[in-house]
């Protein structure tokens, strides 16, 4: 099975300016931002989507949210931010590798698209 774009970024086979990196995940700016701040938090473990995560992934999923909190503070999103996880084509998933979108830098409307 071939690696996804995000696996290649996490493995440093494709260059990206990482905002955060640890043994469990990487975070970097989205190349097609939907807000002034649009960061992707990507686990190193290949999980296609949230619907395919298992009970053994509980700690990793929590870690992704705590990294999102840390990056939001680092990027001074004190007025607020949004976290999004897309699942499947109808959910807006474009890369089959679980990731968290961190969006901010402006007021975000509801409901989204």
Distance separating the two termini: 33 Å
What summary fits the major beta sheet?
5 strands, antiparallel
Number of helical regions: 2
Rough outline: globular
**In terms of structural class, how would the helical and strand content be classed?**
alpha+beta
Order of helices and strands: HEEEHEE
Instruction: Walk across the major sheet and give the strand order.
Output: 1-2-3-5-4
Radius of gyration: 14 Å
Query: Low-confidence parts, pLDDT < 50 over ≥5 residues?
Result: none
Q: Count structural domains.
A: 1
Using the 3D structure, state the CATH architecture.
2-Layer Sandwich
Tell me the β content: 15-25%
**CATH classification, class level:** Alpha Beta
Within CATH, the superfamily carries the name HIT-like
Strand runs, count: 5
Average pLDDT metric:
96
Binned, the helix content reads 10-25%
User: Could you say what the CATH topology is called?
Assistant: HIT family, subunit A
Molecular structure report:
The chain has 113 residues and is of the alpha+beta class. The protein has a single domain, classed as HIT-like (HIT family, subunit A). The protein is built from two helices and five strands; from the N terminus they run αβββαββ. A five-stranded antiparallel sheet has the order 1-2-3-5-4. A hairpin with a 7-residue loop joins β2 and β3.
Summarize the structure.
The protein has 113 residues and is of the alpha+beta class.
Features:
113 residues; alpha+beta; HIT family, subunit A; 5-stranded antiparallel sheet; 2 helices; 22% strand
């Amino acid at each position: 099975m071939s690696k996804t774009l995000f696996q290649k970024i996490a493995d440093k086979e494709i260059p990206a300016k990482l905002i955060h990196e640890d043994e469990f995940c990487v975070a970097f700016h989205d190349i097609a931002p939907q807000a002034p701040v649009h960061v992707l938090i990507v686990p190193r473990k290949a999980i296609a989507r949230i619907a395919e995560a298992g009970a053994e992934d509980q700690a990793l999923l929590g870690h992704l949210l705590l990294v999102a909190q840390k990056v939001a503070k680092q990027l001074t999103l004190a007025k607020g931010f949004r976290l999004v996880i897309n699942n499947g084509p109808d959910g807006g998933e474009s890369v089959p590798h679980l990731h968290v979108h961190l969006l901010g830098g402006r007021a975000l409307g509801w409901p989204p698209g």
